[in-house]
Amino acid sequence: MSKRKHDQRKQEPQKSVVSKAVTTGFVSGVLWSGIGAFTYFFHFSEVSPASFFIRSFWQNEWTSTWIAEVLGVLAVALISMVTALVYYLALKKLHGMWPGIVYGILIWLLIFLAFNPIFNAVPAWGELSSDTMVTTFCLHVLYGVFIGYSISYEYHDFNQSAK
């Protein structure tokens, strides 16, 4: 590493890898659930973030509005901070795209199979359309890869700069 780049790193305050993981979780939650809200709006999916966290618990008129979608995206972002910490604790040392893909698939399976009874506004597994299954599956895989790559890169980069 060049002396100039090394000096620049010394001048910048180092955020901990854990705080970067939490930030990554929040950003990925906003990004991918926001895209999920757009897929719902354009009828690629019959579920949206609001289907899980708003409509499953409240059945009012406002739950069909954009405010409910924004609140659903924020709820996913907060929960994503926890899922990013789980990834950090369990898989941060793994390289490549595959750990993130597997992580995204596991989250998708947990949401649509294990936690489905909690979300009564989300159709059961057998009642989901193929469009919804493919769209949500792809979004969760991308979500997992985003979290996985970001966290493992930061972890390895931090360990390299410490040497």
Range of strand content: under 5%
Mean pLDDT: 91
| Total helical elements | 6
Distance between the termini: 11 Å
Number of domains: 1
Class based on secondary structure composition and strand pairing? mainly alpha
The ordered H/E elements are HHHHHH
Radius of gyration: 18 Å
Mind sketching the topology for me?
Layout: H1 3-11, H2 17-41, H3 49-53, H4 66-91, H5 98-114, H6 130-162
Helix pairs in contact: 2-4, 2-6, 4-6, 5-6
Features:
mainly alpha; 6 helices; 163 residues; elongated
Give an account of the 3D structure.
With 163 residues, the chain is mainly α. It has one domain. 71% of the residues lie in helices and 0% in strands. It has 6 helices and no strands. It has helices at residues 3-11, 17-41, 49-53, 66-91, 98-114, 130-162. Helix 2 runs antiparallel to helix 6. The longest helix is centred in the C-terminal third of the chain and has 33 residues, at 130-162.
Write a brief structural summary.
With 163 residues, this protein is an all-alpha fold. The protein has six helices and no strands.
